[in-house]
Design a protein that fits this description.
Elements lengths: L1 H18 L2 H12 L15 H17 L5 H24 L5 H34 L4 H21 L1 H23 L4 H5 L1
C-alpha cells in the first residue's frame, strides 16, 4: 500500500509540474520541512530551508512571468523541458520503497510523461487564448493554471490516492481532446 501511495503522490505532483514547475517543488519542500512528507534517499536536500527559499523565489518569479503578456508564451517554450525534469524529480523523490531501477523508470515515464502531457495542454490553451484575445485572456489562463498546480500539489500530499484518481481522469480528458483535435473530420482534406 505504501508503494501505491508513493506512486499516486509522484503522479499528482508531476501533473502539477505540467501547470507550474516550481509550485509542486515548493509544496514538497514545505511538507518535508514540516514533517508531513518523507522524501526518498538522495532527495533530502529538497526538504531543507535553503531549498525552500530557492523554490519560493523561483515560484514567485515563475508565477509573475506568466502574468506578463507575450512573456507567458515565451515561458511556455522554456518551461517545457524544465517541466519534464521537474516531473521526473518530484516522482523520484516521492517513492521511498522501490528499487532504484524501478523508481527511475517510473519517474521518467510516468512522472516526466505526465508533466509533459499537461504542459503541452496548457501551452495549447495559452496559444488559443493568445490567438483569440490577443493575449488579454491569458491572465485568466495563468490564474487557472496556478490554481490547478497549487490544488493538485496540496491534494497529492494530503490525499495521494484521490490525487492519483483526479490526475487519471484529467489525463484521459486531455488525451481524448488531443486525439479529437488531431483526427477530427475535415482535417485530412485540409492537409492534402
Amino acid at each position: 500500500m505504501e508503494i501505491l501511495l508513493s506512486i499516486c503522490l509522484g503522479i499528482g505532483l508531476s501533473a502539477a509540474c505540467g501547470f507550474r514547475v516550481f509550485v509542486p517543488l515548493l509544496a514538497i519542500s514545505g511538507a518535508s520541512l514540516s514533517g508531513h512528507l518523507t522524501l526518498s534517499h538522495g532527495f533530502e536536500w529538497i526538504g531543507t530551508f535553503p531549498a525552500f527559499m530557492a523554490f519560493g523565489t523561483a515560484t514567485l518569479l515563475e508565477v509573475g512571468a506568466y502574468y506578463i503578456p507575450w512573456v507567458d508564451n515565451l515561458m511556455d517554450s522554456v518551461a517545457a523541458p524544465v517541466a519534464v525534469v521537474a516531473g521526473t524529480v518530484v516522482a523520484a523523490s516521492s517513492i521511498v520503497h522501490m528499487s532504484p531501477l524501478m523508481k527511475w523508470a517510473f519517474a521518467l515515464i510516468a512522472g516526466g510523461g505526465t508533466a509533459a502531457i499537461f504542459h503541452w495542454a496548457t501551452t495549447f490553451v495559452r496559444g488559443a487564448s493568445t490567438a483569440a484575445t490577443g493575449g488579454l485572456g491569458n491572465h485568466a489562463v495563468a490564474t487557472a493554471e496556478l490554481g490547478i498546480a497549487s490544488g493538485l500539489s496540496i491534494l497529492a500530499i494530503a490525499l495521494p490516492l484521490v490525487s492519483g484518481a483526479v490526475v487519471l481522469v484529467l489525463l484521459c480528458f486531455v488525451v481524448r481532446r488531443g486525439f479529437q483535435r488531431l483526427f477530427r473530420p475535415g482535417r485530412a482534406e485540409a492537409t492534402s
